[in-house]
Specification:
The chain is an alpha/beta fold. 43% of the residues lie in helices and 14% in strands. It folds into two domains: 201 residues, TIM Barrel, CATH 3.20.20.70; 78 residues, no CATH class. The chain has 14 helices and ten strands. An eight-stranded parallel sheet has the order 1-8-7-6-5-4-3-2. A two-stranded antiparallel ribbon has the order 9-10. Helix 8 crosses helix 14. The protein binds flavin mononucleotide (FMN). Flavin mononucleotide (FMN) binds next to strand 3, strand 8 and helix 9.
Amino acid sequence: MKTRITELFGIQHPIIQGGMHYVGFAELAAAVSNAGGLGLITGLTQKTPELLAKEIARCHEMTDKPFGVNLTFLPTFSAPPYPEYIAAIAEGGIRVVETAGRSPEAHMPALKAAGIKVIHKCTSVRHALKAEAIGCDAVSVDGFECGGHPGEDDLPNMILLPRAAEELRIPFVASGGMADGRSLVAALALGADGMNMGTRFIATQEAPVHDNVKQAIVKASELDTRLVMRPLRNTERVLNNAGVERILQIEREKGAALQISDVYDQVAGVYPRVMVEGEMDAGAWSCGMVAGLIRDVPTVKELIDRIMAQAHGLIHARLAGMLEAQPG
Ligand SMILES: Cc1cc2nc3c(=O)[nH]c(=O)nc-3n(C[C@H](O)[C@H](O)[C@H](O)COP(=O)(O)O)c2cc1C
């Protein structure tokens, strides 16, 4: 399939694996890129720029296809050394960076000087337009369904994507709630040039996380995610568990007086416990509503081949067939 996104990134299929803390290691990024999509290493999971450089080198050993790095600009008190991370990315020969969180504006000159294409992930049309204005090459439009941080506008993709298509000139991919060929065809119909998936890629053979995480996603229904940290305007969609119930209880008790310090223990340091140790009740970890559509743990190649076959079938048979069936 050829879209503006496959052309921009030099990939076979318009499918991107979004950055995921403690999931986006070289194994997954390489598997996605080898299967014809665009895999991404999650930059900040690597504790230092030196470790990121090593992870990039490891990924180069596993694939000769293009892959990228996610760089999340956190709303934090202790900012990571972003210029050094960008230097490691550029020196590692990376040509695509997915930015997320805050605007990447301050870092655009460094990224562009290194010949890097920037796809900014955001949850509103106004932020997407801002990304376009500051020179991003593409955007990833993340709807309310998404795992992780859906923002505070609560716009589902059925509205957000066509609104983005009305306003943007640069290409964009649909993100949040994407799982299969139906998602891809719908995303293309709504004006996107491809799709970005997070949660679906965790439930794959190559995702280097504990099997408990994959099984939890397979078992979960579309009703099993919760929104935490709403009162802090740092909303995160997570899979419900005992730790999440504790956070929600604290949020109810504190009401509008809630501070990050009240829930810090339940959200900080949780990822290694969940993803590495498989402690499923440790606390809040991002997961999308799309868990309700995930029923197996295929290889990444099986998943991507299946998505593309289903998309082709939908376009050629189901949709084209409906037109042919029209009387007159
Ligand atoms: C476990 C997990 C961790 C994530 N970590 C990050 C992250 O560190 N940075 C980021 O930009 N997005 C992160 N995301 C968001 C994904 O990149 C992607 O935008 C989102 O999962 C799309 O929604 P979906 O899960 O419905 O596919 C994370 C998502 C999940 C499920």
